[in-house]
Specification:
Elements: E1 4-10, H1 16-27, E2 31-35, H2 48-53, H3 64-75, E3 80-86, E4 91-99, E5 104-108, H4 116-119, E6 124-129, H5 132-146, H6 154-173, E7 182-185, H7 191-214
Helix pairs in contact: 1-7, 5-6
């Protein structure tokens, strides 16, 4: 039986990680989650000033061909080895993560609706929406706590957001709402969004179990 594939997108710090982690905790191995962030192209060998100038918020920043290839193999029942991306060095690690097929597969990322071939593989498309000031505050906290940004270079992080992330959001991400089957507001957190997505998943898991029982 073909897995049911859900695409979850939204701007940076719109709540995707919270929702995904809540779903993984709830379904505990019954679903597979693939993050587009794992498929960032490696910047190995470039100098730091090149890294800082690189645009990580555009569709071309990702190895989308590999992501589509891996998703297709998962649909066909094959296990794939997904890359691991290091945000501090901006290159892929030698480590690979095995991804095994599941009845429900979630693909999450900021640019997953921008790739027609990838978008057409989704059975259900969800857009998480939060106000720009809320997303900026969340991103700053995340970068400080998880991605090695210090208080001393916080100004550069804010300038990067204003000069790169925000314009790319307006150009590439916000217009993708038109493809969404469901738009969820996460201004007040992701609990409500996680619950709504969980209900969709539960329905599909029940359907998959029923189909196996009838086979």
């Amino acid at each position: 039986m073909r897995p049911y594939i859900i695409g979850i997108t939204g701007g940076t710090a719109s709540g995707k990680t919270f929702v995904i982690e809540a779903l993984k905790d709830r379904f505990n191995g019954k679903i597979l989650v693939i993050s587009q962030d794992q498929y960032y192209k490696s910047e190995r060998g470039l100098f730091m000033n090149r890294w800082e100038r690189a645009n990580f918020d555009s569709p071309e920043a990702f190895d989308n061909h590999l992501l589509v290839e891996h998703l297709q193999k998962l649909i066909e029942g094959e296990t794939v080895l997904a890359p691991v991306y290091d945000y501090k060095t901006h290159h892929r690690l030698k480590t690979k993560i095995p991804l095994e097929p599941r009845p429900v597969i979630i693909v999450e990322g900021i640019m997953i609706f921008n790739i027609p071939q990838l978008r057409e593989m989704f059975d259900y498309k969800i857009y998480l929406q939060a106000d720009p000031d809320i997303r900026l505050a969340r991103r700053l906290l995340r970068d400080i706590e998880e991605r090695g940004v210090s208080i001393s270079n916080l100004r550069g992080t804010i300038e990067w957001y204003m000069n790169n992330v925000k314009p790319m959001h307006e150009k590439y991400i916000r217009p993708m709402k038109k493809y969404a089957d469901l738009i969820l507001n996460t201004n007040h957190g992701g609990l409500g969004a996680a619950e709504k997505v969980a209900q969709i998943i539960e329905d599909k898991l029940k359907s998959a179990k029923g189909a196996v029982g009838r086979a």
